[in-house]
Automatic annotation (TrEMBL):
It comes from the Eukaryota. It holds the Pfam family UQ_con. This is SUMO-conjugating enzyme UBC9. The active site is at C130 (glycyl thioester intermediate). It is found in: Nucleus. It comes from Astyanax mexicanus (Blind cave fish). Pathway: Protein modification; protein sumoylation. Its main location: nucleus. GO terms for cellular component: chromosome; nucleus.
Amino acid sequence: MSRLSKITFIFVVVGEEVWRGFSRRVRKEESRSGSVVMSGIALSRLAQERKAWRKDHPFGFVAVPTKNPDGTMNLMNWECAIPGKKGTPWEGGLFKLRMLFKDDYPSSPPKCKFEPPLFHPNVYPSGTVCLSILEEDKDWRPAITIKQVTWTISAELCKSFTSDPIHELLVVFKNDIINMQTIDFYITAGISI
């Protein structure tokens, strides 16, 4: 029996009003089916990432999925912490970072945001991290892992300046390394400036 004849048969048997409701549900499911599949891929990949992280992660780094109100694990939202490297103005600090994943992960990168926001050339005032590996149209690749993202963010914290600063205040401090290091110290110490 062809699809058209099945639909005609259902219409005759169940009546017009019931069919309209069924038809709306089918169209709604068809429009969502793409994201359902992608969400399944994202959840599967994130479960693998969690397992890999638990087996091996950089010393001092933290990356754990958050919990939903009902106590279940939310793999789409991770709480992370990145330690400041020794010998840098960030030494001794532990910087909290949230990673939010979309349904189409790993095709799209996670959104990484420091909470509270951090004063740094690669961090927007909102706390969102600005790195080319976190931009889908630049250097993001689906093979990049959570471990690589946290490691790259840590490496970027060590850099005082980039060729593309995003903070207006960096213009003032660009040629004044001492003021920039003073700001880094206050941030690492948790002192508000």
